[in-house]
Each structure stands twice: as structure tokens, then as C-alpha cells.
Amino acid sequence: MDRNNYSGNTNFSFQVERFKDKETNKLYSEYDLPNIDDDDFEFERIFITLQVYGYSYYDSGKYGPYEDSYSSEGDTEIEKIIDNNGNDWLNKITKSERNSILDSIEDLAKEEYFDCSF
What we know:
It is a single chain. By secondary structure, the protein is of the alpha+beta class. It has one domain. Helices cover 19% and strands 38% of the residues. It contains one helix and four strands, in the order ββββα. The chain has a four-stranded antiparallel beta sheet with strand order 2-1-3-4. The relative contact order is 0.24. The model has no long low-confidence stretch (mean pLDDT 85).
């Protein structure tokens, strides 16, 4: 078995930090908080647990005669992210959170693939 190739689906819990406006209940990430100098703005720091579903694969390709060759390819995708109420969070996460989730999907898909392959 080629230990470079893998394919798998995974799901896991992921926690995000948000700041909840006490007046409007609107949630803010640390990057989009209103001006903290605003005396009217009071917030509560909360943590939200999300369920993440995704897949990842990698095929290292094959090299040799043209008719038998193909390039390496791979992809890691987030299929869905939902909170405990079933609300979609796919477009509510920050870039940093997205990158961390994609790394986790790739790592977990590899682990699950190789654990099941032996």
C-alpha cells in the first residue's frame, strides 16, 4: 500500500469563540468587534461547539510512459458546519478557523484511512 495516498470522510466537534452583544444578541468574532470604546456596547464572551463534516483525498500520481502516467492530485473540503441547533455556520467562520478546520479534516481523514486499511 502506498502510504502517500488516502481518501476519507470525517466529522468532529470544533469550538469557536464569539462575543455576544448583550443588547441585540448579535455574535461577533474577535476580528469584527465594534469599537470597544463605545460605552453602549456590552458583550459576553461565549464558546460555541460546532459539528464539522468534510472529506480529503490525495493521489500521488504515477510517472512513467505517457499512456500510463497521471499527475498528483488532492483536495480537502468542508461539506458542512452546523451548531447544536442545526444552524449552518459554513459562512460564519473566520479565515483562521477555516484553515484550522481544513487541516483537521486532512489529518483525521488520513488517520481513519490508514487505521481501516490494515
